[in-house]
Design a protein that fits this description.
The protein is of the alpha/beta class. It is about 35% helix and about 25% strand. It is built from eight helices and 13 strands.
Length: about 290
């Protein structure tokens, strides 16, 4: 019997699920089958389409689900679990448009993005830029750039690489300029929560990526935010330590907090919670409360 993998129906989601399927499939078996889940326009409420994919596993129509980790809510759906986190792709944000650095983006450029996190960090560094609401999949956003609807767009480097469109990137923002969303660049293999259901997915798990994601998700939960909040959390291994950067700001970039913690990689959730505590004490809690009312 082939392994059934539930996924969103977008091109990028299918590519990501295919990567996991090829890594998990038994060469001597029947391979794998993608179970695409249609969502209204493949945009809008991320939790809605995540729930749709999860339903395939809960109802037994698929053995596993593959998600972009940054789309998965901090609170796991009852009965399901993260069974594996494959090796992580480049987590940075990328600029497509004129200019080879943040400083060289033309003054007053119209920047296409639907992310409050990206908007906040862009305006904190370059208040002259003009954010423009831009939705749709990667191909659609790049088409709108080509059509002149915006002067530039900010997209995840990981998605561009998986779609083999990285040659269109003008530059990647440094982690200090643009703290990525929690889970950006990582994939999640989700199964039922039982040990037997999780076991087949474990061969694709990469321990370092799993620890980074645990730290990031712990920080997001502690800050009581979701994937639409103007918050960036990014963990990475460096010199035998786990380093976690955090950002929280108002959507207009007028007020923001950045912080960093590092420590034992074997305690990722504790480090993530510590980062959230420090950020809250530094003003992130009040900033996020204000942001939620805008």
């Amino acid at each position: 019997m082939s392994l059934r993998i539930a996924t969103r129906s977008s091109k990028l989601a299918r590519v990501q699920a295919d990567l996991v399927g090829r890594a998990l499939a038994d060469p001597a078996g029947d391979g794998f089958e993608l179970i695409p889940v249609e969502t209204a326009g493949e945009s809008g409420d991320k939790q809605r389409f995540v729930r749709g994919v999860e339903r395939e596993v809960i109802d037994g129509r698929a053995e596993v689900a593959v998600h972009s980790a940054k789309d998965l809510p901090g609170t796991m759906t009852t009965g399901l679990a993260i069974a594996a986190v494959p090796g992580r792709e480049d987590p940075r944000d990328a600029w497509l448009g004129p200019g080879s650095s943040l400083e060289e983006i033309p003054a007053g450029a119209r920047v296409g993005t639907s992310s409050l996190r990206r908007r906040s960090q862009l305006l904190a560094a370059r208040p002259d830029l003009v954010p423009v609401e831009l939705r749709g999949n990667v191909d659609t956003r790049i088409e709108k750039l080509a059509g002149g609807e915006v002067d530039g767009v900010v997209l995840a480097m990981a998605g561009l690489k998986r779609l083999r469109r990285e040659e269109e990137v003008a530059f990647a923002f440094s982690l200090d300029q643009m703290t990525p969303a929690a889970g950006q660049g990582a994939l999640v293999v989700q199964t039922r929560a039982t040990r037997a259901a999780r076991a087949p997915a474990r061969p694709v798990n990469e321990e370092g990526a799993e620890r980074e994601l645990k730290a990031e998700r712990a920080a997001v939960v502690a800050l009581e935010t979701d994937c639409s909040s103007p918050v960036g959390i990014h963990a990475r291994h460096r010199g035998g330590r786990l380093v976690i950067d955090g950002f929280a700001g108002l959507p207009d970039g007028s007020k923001w907090v950045r912080d960093r913690v590092e420590g034992d990689p074997a305690r990722p959730e504790v480090l993530g919670q510590e980062l959230a505590r420090r950020m809250s004490l530094a003003g992130a809690a009040s900033i996020l409360t204000a942001a939620s009312t805008l």
